[in-house]
Amino acid sequence: MKQHAILCTRLGIRLSRRLACRTGSGVRFTLEQAMSTSYNGCARLARSGALIIFAVGGFLTLASAQTDCAEGNGVLDNTPPKGIGVQDIIQKFGAEETKVRDARTHYTYTQDVMVQTLSGNKVDGQFHEITSVSYDIKGKRIENVSFSEVPTLRSVQMTAQDMDDIGIFMPWILTTDQLPDYKINYLGQQHVDDLETYVFRVEPAKQEKDKRYFQGRIWIDNRDFQMVKLCGKTVPELIRPKKHQEVEARPTFVGYRQLVDGYWFPAYARVDDTLHLRVESVHLREIVKFKDYKRQASTKAESKP
Prior knowledge:
By secondary structure, the protein is mainly beta. It has helices at residues 31-35, 86-104, 160-168, and strands at residues 12-15, 21-22, 28-29, 39-45, 51-59, 107-119, 122-135, 141-148, 182-192, 195-204, 213-221, 227-235, 253-260, 263-276, 281-295.
């Protein structure tokens, strides 16, 4: 982002096998109802296929602007995995992620992007765009913008590269062919809400000119060997530009997946970050939803992982 970034409302997220949630008052929330509210709460990625957000009451209050990667995580156990080698895990999840990528091209879905700038706790600018996404028979992504309001963001602007980051890295899928591009270090095992996961630190092995990469942590389900959570940012950044260059700062985002027909598909990403630019700091928040997955009628059913 050129002198800007993205960030989102502070919603807690949980990975679970449950389908629904209740508030203290007994009100039950569906996925769409919960994700459209301005309440603080928690969400779950369920093995049954639903991303659940629990509303816990009280309107959103923004404290420190820093994306929380640790929410929902248990204690990190850095002992080696039992019964399987680290490289075997990496190769196995690379293969499973390749299946996820290929399967996703046989679905249509909605990408809903909300970006806001804030002054204190008050929203002073906004970008909101809803896009219908599909794929042609060769797997090429097709986008059709169904809603776009006039942006009012202050101090920052959305660029084509920012939209690429939203469409590629927030729902990042780490496939076998990408493995050589990254250093992937095993950090341990971690209980994340209701799931047991392997945790890895991922960073580019080298950075080629005009190419972007993910840098951060990923959580791999220890049963399905697919990514269920990631937290990091895109690199490289240009934090200390030369004269006449613009600052390119990237926010930290956390993303979650949901089960769709046996695959963990990207479902939700959020950012709550402050970007420090040349002469000012900008507080941004963002929520990105990948929802309403529907298998395209013209495709044949595939074997599940």
